[in-house]
Amino acid sequence: MCLRIYIATLLFFVGTASAQNRELLGEYKLGIVGSDQSDTIYQAAHEGAKDAALELSERYSIDVELLVYTPDQSQGSTQATSLADLFIENADGLIVSPEPTGAVQSSIQFARDQGQEIVYFERQLSEVEPLVALLADEVEAGRLAGHTVLTKLSSRGRVAILTSANPTPALEQRLSGLREVLGFRRIATTVTCEPDYRSAVAAIHAAEEADRNDQIDAWVFLEDWPMLGMPALPWKPGERPIVAIQSTPSAFMYVDRGYLDALIVHPYYEWGYQSVEALVEKLHNEQSPESNLVRTTPRVVDWRNAEAYRENWKRWLR
Question: Phi and psi dihedrals of 135, rounded to 5?
Fold first, then answer.
């Protein structure tokens, strides 16, 4: 037991000395951890972080090394193990979209206790205070979806909503914002499904078949599960206005084929860029953000800007 404590203490002091030496030389190690490597949202955030590391290195004549440690869930990797690996790498700062598990919370708290700066993006853990949290404004995403779909409808048109049978807090916030805009009279039905392509398509078909009185005039998908495969919707392109809150770039196929009127998107790339920027300003210039909580603004992608947004995804996923 004494030997373990000695080794842990030795590692801590060696790591602290190494970090202080890097700081004097203008060298910084930053780690970024999303939920899953296969998720394109985190791939976009990685690209933003990489670009920021390069640009800030040139701006301040320093060396910012970015370590991408988002786990590969298909291989059994987890956020907790990624965070442990980053501690071994002696990172100066961590950028995390934290999963709400005890192991992740403990890992982040440990890193914080050892003096590492923490930045959250997309979501946060309220138990561990960060340098800054760049959080998705999911309520505003729901509001935007509501305002956008209403522009496609007559004054009496009604909307069906697709959400998960077991909604996450993010989905509940989106639904809250959407309901705020639509009001009770403009909602035809709320349809639930498992969060995957086949379940979503089956739920939509069942809802349309049950709509004997033609109450459904449009749809809002609180995530784009029905668009994760080939088009299999029970109507022709253009027959139903559809607005979806994006989770992958696969929805562009539905834009091209005329099924989808608009996407509501979060600033995935900017999450990574702004996170690195906040850490470098703190570590190198001792400048803290004006606020430790920033709600990032979602936006609408439709026919006016879809092509430019598609080009962004091509660059992020290169």
Answer: -105, 140
pLDDT digits (tens, 9 = 90+) for 57-92: 999 999 999 999 999 988 888 999 999 998 889 999
164 CB-near residues (< 8 Å, 6+ apart): 171, 192, 193, 194, 195, 222, 223
CB 125 within 8 A of CB 97: no
Q: Are residues 178 and 99 in the same domain?
A: no
Query: Do 93 and 278 touch, CB atoms closer than 8 A?
Result: no
Mark which of 260, 287, 307 sits at the end of a domain: 260
DSSP assignment string, 258-269: T---EEEE--HH
Contact 105, 128 (CB under 8 A): yes
Q: What is the pLDDT of residues 177-215, one digit of tens each?
A: 999 999 999 999 999 999 999 999 999 999 999 999 999
291 and 251 together in one domain: no
**Statement: residue 259 has pLDDT above 60:** yes
The runs of H, that is alpha helices, within 211-267 are 252-256
pTM of the model: 0.88
Beta bridge partners of 147: none
For residue 118, tell me if it sits in a domain: yes
In sequence order, the β-bridge partners of residue 160 are 189, 219
| pLDDT band at residue 23 using 50, 70 and 90 as cut-offs | low
CA distances from 295 to 56, 120, 289, 298 (A): 23, 12, 13, 9
Q: Which residue range(s) make up the domain with 182?
A: 153-260
Q: Give me the sign of the Cα torsion angle 149, 152, 153, 158.
A: negative
Domain end residue (candidates: 208, 234, 260):
260
Sign, CA dihedral 173-175-178-179, equals negative
In CATH, what number is assigned to the domain containing residue 100?
3.40.50.2300
- Pairing status of strand 262-265 against strand 299-301: antiparallel
Same domain, 122 and 171: no
